Amino acid sequence: MNGEIETLEDLSQHYQDSVPADLREANTFDWYLRELHDDPRIARNAHQRVADMFDYYGTEYDEDAGVVEYLMASEDPLHEGENIFYGREVHESIHEFVNKVKSGARGLGPEKRIKLLLGPVGSGKSHFDLMVRRYFEDYTMRDEGRMYTFRWTNLCDVIRDQDPADDTVQSPMHQDPVVLLPQEQRDRVIEQLNENLDAPYTIRNEQSLDPASEFYMDKLLAEYDDDLQSVLENHVEIIRLVASENKRQCIETFEPKDKKNQDETELTGDVNYSKLAVYGESDPRAFDYSGAFCNANRGLFSGEELLKLQREFLYDFLHASQEQTIKPKNNPRIDIDQVIVGRTNMPEYRDKKGDEKMEAFNDRTKRIDFPYVLEYTQEAEIYRKMLRNADVPHMHIEPHAMEMAGLFGVLTRITEPDGERISLTQKAKAYNGEIDDGDDVDVKKLREEGESKADIAEGMEGVSARFIGDEIAEAIMDSTHRGRDYLSPLSIFTHFEENLENHGSIPEENVERYLRYLEMVRDEYKERAIEDVRHALAYDLDEIQRQGEKYMDHVMAYIDDATVRDELTGREQDPDEKFLRSVEEKLEIPNDRKDDFRQEVSNWVSRRAREGTSFNPQDNDRLRRALERKLWEDKKHNINFSALVSANELDDDERNAWIDALEEQGYSREGAREVLEFAGAEVAKAELET
User: Fold this and answer.
1) What is the pLDDT of residues 37-54, one digit of tens each?
2) Which of 147-156, 272-281, 303-312, 657-666 bottoms out in mean pLDDT, i.e. has the lowest?
3) 434 lies in some domain
4) In what helix (H) or strand (E) does residue 60 lie, and over which residues does it extend?
């Protein structure tokens, strides 16, 4: 915009462009039939429209995670990425939800079930439900998602006792105009639509008109001697229908109130007392279609904390899901068409799961587990998203801060592995994809073991991202009050430790175990901080490249049973086994596994060569780590370790050079001083003892 001020004219034009062109238009029923012929998808039911919505915003296949990701969740194009979902488990849950909707679109059964999102607090199920509603609103504003309903007009011309205020009445259930056709004629139209339809489903509609519309249709047909054409031409207008949660139009959210005051009319509607004196108690025109199921027709019903409802109050959901009807008090059944989504937390699910009287309800639900994220780097992205959406422009987040917070969260969510073969931290790393080719770790078996040991499923218990996000926020504010413009892992650890015991969502019996996990995270951070300090003290990119090339020359000669030309003498010599082992031992590769490792890196180099990519040890994580550690061993004897532990030498040239090197790794200057004192002291202690 180049800094130009937005004028009212600009804003008005932008709004006008965002509104469907036919939003305010009224069209004839004949017009609607022609539109259906050109685009049969207009007549889709709710499941079909929601299923197409997910595909409309885009999909991609994540080969690493082995799951389909829907871009409305993985990229959030409508909100510029503000509401991205992270984690393999979460995207698997979303994919499972979409599969249920798509199965329902094909009439395979899930259209008659409640999609119950089950998960612990703060797992993202409510936010996902919200995003589905927001995207559905947007989708119905677009040509690809358009839908229409109808309104009755000029009713007072025919119906003598019609209230003048009701001369024009919109379809109270927002029904599709094809419902105005008797079933035999409707089937003929739908048969033609399906012949033109390019979709994995077929159009179906066997709904009856809502009672009020049925009343108007009967009166008008009687007036026109059953001339349906005259009725539709003189008393029906077709109008665009756009979903809006605020207007309670095609989207409705339902929240449980006081158990003692639950009233089924909240779901199914009630008498319109203002019309009772006009029409009489038994007249369908005196009914108020304001129930949640009525408002959600043609779209989405979202039930929050569904299992907190009384058992008797849930009976309405049985008919709404299985029979796709509702039965208001003293009124006939009303057909509904909507995707019913429920959400519940673990305690309520456990209570209802063992209740034999809930068998019918449980049989009509499709449970979709919505666990916590179990990859700690993906969990870290949740906190980064939180910071991106907040006002903390001057707070520098130090390396490892978000990852270590994420690691702590994941450790509380995964089950302890069997035996001593692998530690809990190693299991978390395996889930995060940190598996070397030579490691004897089967992630699939780890996940199967975790699922079998968990109460419901792995990831359904533990510390929530909400708790961790709150503590990160507290740590940021604490740093701000102290005049520090950086956030380090150490300050986050302090807030975890101080507040674990006092947090309402963390059971008292888990606190001691979680504190033990926090110590594991401290140990992991210490190792990473030491690596960073070692990197700063002795890192030499050119030397690593040279040593890497030397290593590969000797490896290839070893594999081919050949000789290597000595760099100094120019003579041919056998591969330097001592040099090779000095590199491999830095990865703790035993002597009986050296051939496997050498073949592994040889294959990697060969693949790179075939692809036309030059050798660079930085591109192979294991080889890079081994070479960096060897370089450290070679150079540490020339380092002044006393400078690491002395706070009085902050201005020393050598120490400042180390701080500069840490800054290049992403540290702030103050954060570099902190990590140098924290990890540097550990490095100095270890080296001075040897």
Assistant:
1) 999 999 999 999 999 999
2) 303-312
3) yes
4) strand 59-62
Count of alpha carbons within 13 angstroms of residue 212, beta-carbon side: 23
Q: Do 382 and 517 reside in the same domain of the chain?
A: yes
Q: Which of 257, 156, 143, 271 is nearest to 211 (CA)?
A: 271
- Number of domains forming the structure of the chain: 2
Closest C-alpha among 53, 109, 300, 102 to residue 201 = 102
Same domain for 490 and 601? no
Task: Judge if 502 and 569 occupy the same domain.
Answer: no
Model confidence at 646, in pLDDT bands (50, 70, 90)? low
Give residue 656's pLDDT: 85
What's the whole-number mean pLDDT along residues 608-621? 89
Backbone angles phi, psi at 148, to 5 degrees: -135, 155
Give the per-residue pLDDT at 405.
Answer: 97
- Assign 469 to helix, strand or coil: helix
- With 60 as the cut, is the pLDDT of residue 272 above it? yes
Give CA–CA dist 472/490, Å, rounded: 11
Encode 508-538 in three state secondary structure: HHHHHHHHHHHHHHHHHHHHHHHHHHHHHHH
Q: Find out whether 93 and 136 touch, Cβ atoms under 8 Å.
A: no
CA nearest to 545, candidates 467, 628, 622: 628
Residues 516 and 547 in one domain: no
Instruction: Mention every residue, 6+ apart, whose C-beta is less than 8 A from residue 203.
Output: 40, 43, 44, 45, 48, 190, 193, 194, 197
In a domain, 463, yes or no: yes
Are residue 575 and residue 493 in the same domain, yes or no? no
37: how many CB neighbours lie within 10 A of its CB?
A: 13
Domain boundary among 570, 591, 624: 624
What is the distance of C-alpha 556 from the center of its chain?
46
Hey, is 616 helix, strand or coil? coil
CA atoms within 13 A on the CB side of 394: 6
Question: Exposure of 153 by Cβ count < 10 A (0-12 exposed, 13-18 middle, 19+ buried)?
Answer: middle
Collapsed DSSP state (helix, strand, coil) of residue 48: helix
Whether residue 425 lies inside any domain: the answer is yes
Rounded to whole angstroms, the Cα distance separating 169 from 263 reads 27
Q: Are residues 517 and 546 in the same domain?
A: no
What confidence score (pLDDT) does residue 36 get? Answer: 97
SS3 at position 14: helix
The pLDDT score that the predictor gives to residue 256 is 75
Q: Domain range spanning residue 440? A: 376-523
Closest to 126 in 3D by CA, of 163, 85, 157, 92: 85
Burial (CB < 10 A; 0-12, 13-18, 19+), residue 86, is buried
Report pLDDT for 318: 84
**Residue 124 in domain:** no
Distances (CA, A) of 527 to 532, 640, 666: 9, 21, 17
The answer to whether residues 512 and 599 belong to one domain is no
Rounded CA separation 403/226 (Å) = 72
Query: Position 439: which residue type?
Result: D
- Token reading at 626: 């081994």
CA distance 618 to 641: 27
How far apart, in Å, are the Cα atoms of 24 and each of 27, 139, 143, 370, 530? 10, 18, 15, 40, 66
Please identify, among 494, 523, 552, the residue that sits at the C-terminal boundary of a domain.
523
Let me know whether 492 and 577 are in one domain.
Answer: no
pTM above 0.85, yes or no: yes
SS3 state of residue 69 = strand
Q: What is the pLDDT of residue 541?
A: 83
